[in-house]
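pinging the channel bc i need a second pair of eyes. not urgent but kinda urgent?? the chain im working w is below, pasted from the shared doc
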Amino acid sequence: MRRFEKYRRLLQFETLLLVVFLALNAFIFSLQSQAAIGSLSQPQTLLQTPPVPPPAAVGGEVQGKQIAAAYSFSMSAGCRGANDPYISFSWSPSASTAVAVAIGTNQSDITGSAEFSQTYNVGATGGVFEGARPGVTYYGTMYVFLSQVSNVHGLSTPSCESSPPPCSPTAPAAPTLYSPTNGASFSSSTSSVTLDWNDVTSWGNECSGTNDRVYAVYFGTSSSPPFLAYSSDSAETVSVGAGKTYWWRIRALNKARAVSGYSELRSFTVGAAVASPTPTPTPITITPATNLVAARSCSVPGPGNNVRVDYFWTRAYAAGRTIDAQWLDYSIYNNNFASGTYTGVDVGTTATTLSLGGFAQNLDYYWRVNTHFSGDPLTTWYPSVTKNFLTPGCGGVVASPTPTPVIQPTPSARFVVTNPKTPGL
């Protein structure tokens, strides 16, 4: 029994050693397999992956026959620089075992056309394919040993052309002025002047601008003339006035609205208006009353103030003028009709005769016709020459004393026809 027990324990120990040995060999074999896959070159790795079955569609995620599609695979592309695209890929869930990713140009044979292949360890979720070619359609998928384990995803890489630098507009050349010349003078009758300048030939960098090329016109009576208007050509007509000096200058704006510097500053002058001379009025010749005649007669014979005098005259005259008053003045004094020494009778504006009675016999009288024209000052009168006459004796004794005349007020603008007063009464 003891010997049997001894052999039984020895058998158990040998059996345990065998199990451990087998398990250890299996573990070593597994490690060697994974290491072999990871150490293979990309072509060698892809050779272990069978061709992908033809997909049903092209572009984006390609749906086709998949073997153990345990992962959702997707790709995106971008640019590192000019002509330098890359493809970024990812999958979910994370790798539960070692996986291989292949990216090629033939969707029917991704591994055969592969330009990228790489194995990833447990827990990986994606990677990057650097060095992809620009403008190429690529397809990618995942494998575990010989089995495709994800969908096929396709995309085209961008061209990654180098972008031109941002355009910076530059200003056009400043316009050069043509006419009027600086300091020019125009007559006072000038009402408008055309500003003229040369077309700009250098418009600068317009950066594909779409605006119209225009000129900004600055014009005014200040030496810093204000903006007046935009002109699409090289001329602008402006209004001017007599007796003023004007300044002007021009700037150019190109299609990108870049503005040139100012042209030179010029000025011109419009002459002052010449005042029309005040016409010298044509003297108006005024002819006072003329042809004065006094006819005397005795109204009744005998003594007393019974002399009648009939006056006749030609009215005063002035071309284009109107008489607005006539007075007949008479006096027994030859003193040029001093104030208070004569009698005045308003005879009206059209009268040329007047009859008066009651004059004394054998006495000298002096008389005149005084005329006023409309529009003249109230004090401006035009007297005729002074005439005199001697009253006749009527067969009686001369009345005594010498009669005192009744004096009329000095004529005014308001003329009232009055009845003549008989001297001496």
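so The first strand starts at residue 60 and ends at 62. and The mean pLDDT is 81. — does that match what u expected or am i reading it wrong
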